[in-house]
Amino acid sequence: MNNVEKFKEFVRKNPSLIKHVRIGDMTWQKFYEIFNLYGENNDAWKDYITSSNKTETKAAAATAGVGLGDFISMFKGLDLDGIQSGVSSIQRVLSVLQDFSSKDSTNSTKPKTEYKPRPLYKHFED
């Protein structure tokens, strides 16, 4: 079994490492480098494996930290003129597409007059 397979097995045994990567404390590359340098039975892992409660509280704080103040600051950063110009350009495109589709449908609904050839025995205004 190569080092990558050993590392994958180590991560399966210690799912708290996944939480650290999702929060953004560490990356898989850094974890792999620590695994290659120190192995799986070292004090280098004590901050990441035994602190599962601390990791869960950080994750909960990261997801629950969205409040009214965050929404207000997000709306303050919006450029309303830019949004309005984008919406108006989308409306123009939709109206052009609607015009094309309505022209096609009106042309197809017009009754076509069938060509009736003139009888051979009739001459001009006979």
Describe this structure in words.
- This protein is mainly alpha-helical.
- The chain is 68% helix and 0% strand.
- The protein contains 7 helices and no strands.
- The protein has helices spanning 3-13, 16-23, 28-38, 46-49, 52-64, 68-76, 80-109.
- Helix 2 (16-23) runs parallel beside helix 5 (52-64).
- The N and C termini lie far apart (102 Å).
- The model has no long low-confidence stretch (mean pLDDT 77).
What's the helix and strand layout?
Elements: H1 3-13, H2 16-23, H3 28-38, H4 46-49, H5 52-64, H6 68-76, H7 80-109
Helix pairs in contact: 2-5
Shape summary: elongated
Query: What is the N-to-C order of secondary-structure elements (H for helix, E for strand)?
Result: HHHHHHH
- Count of alpha/pi helices: 7
What value does the Rg take, in angstroms? Answer: 35 Å
The total of beta strands comes to 0
Q: How confident overall, as mean pLDDT?
A: 77
Largest sheet: none
Q: Residue ranges: pLDDT <50 for 5 or more in a row?
A: none
Give the assembly state of these chains.
single chain
Bin the strand percentage: under 5%
What structural class do helix, strand and pairing data support? Answer: mainly alpha
Helix content: 55-70%
Offer a few descriptive terms.
elongated; 126 residues; mainly alpha; 68% helix; 7 helices
Summarize the structure.
With 126 residues, the protein is mainly alpha-helical.
